[in-house]
Amino acid sequence: MFIDTYENFAEFYDITAAWHVPKIAGPLAEALSVVEGTAGPVLEIGAGTGRVTEVIAKTVPQADIIAAEPSVPMRAVLTSRVFGDPHLRDRVTVLEEPAPHMRLPDHLSGVVLVGVLGHLTDVERADLWARLGERLAPGAPIVVDFFASDPSPMPLTKVLSEPIGEQTYEWWVSSAGLVDGLIRYQRTWKVIADGEPVRSVDTTSDWVPLNLEQLAEESGLTARRIGDSSIGVLAR
C-alpha cells in the first residue's frame, strides 16, 4: 500500500525542486546523452512536480516520456506543467502508480530515478531491477541521484529561503543520522510575513542510504558517477 509522505508539504515541493534540479541538470543531461529514444520511451519514476521531466524532454527531444508520480498533490502540479507546455503535452504520459506496482512498456530507452530509491525496500528494489532489466535496450542508462543519502547526523539547518509576494518561505532540515539502518529526516517549512512566522509545517520521513557501489551490486549492472555530482548511471 502506498503511503503519501509528501502530501502535507507538497505545496512547497516545487520550491525545493527549483533549487535542486538546476544543480543536477547538467550531469543528468550528460547521463542521458547516449539515449536515442528509438528503442522505447524514457521512464521517469517519481516525477514529482515535473522539473526533471523538463530536463529529460529537452535532452532527449526525440523520445517519448512516461512520468510516474503516485502522490496526488504532486501529480496535480506535474499534470498542470505537462498540459501547459505544448512541447511536453504531446510527448509525456503521466501515470499514477508507485514503483512496485507500475505498468511498464515492453521496451525502454532509459530510466530516471531522482529522489526515489531511498523510499523502496530491498525487496522492492530487487523486483524493480529485474523488471527494468527485461525491458531496457542494451546500453540504455538507469540514471539515479544520491542527494540526501549521507548518513551523517545533520544539525538543524536552513537549506533555502525564497520570497513569494509579501511572504518568505524557509526550508529547515535536520537528521539524527542512522536509525535502524535508515536516515530519519525532520523537515520544517516556515512561512514568514513581516519578519514573523505565520505558518509552520513539520514532516518526518525515513530514507534508505544507498551508494552507487551498493546499487551496482544489487542490480548486477555496471556503475559510474558523473563527475563529482550526485548523479550516477547504471547500465549493462
TrEMBL record:
Q: Where is the Methyltransferase domain?
A: 42-139
Under SUPFAM superfamilies, the record lists:
S-adenosyl-L-methionine-dependent methyltransferases
Pfam families under this entry? Methyltransf_25
> Which InterPro entries does the record cross-reference, listed alphabetically?
Methyltransf_25, SAM-dependent_MTases_sf
The protein in question is named: Methyltransferase domain-containing protein
Recite the lineage of the species: Bacteria, Bacillati, Actinomycetota, Actinomycetes, Mycobacteriales
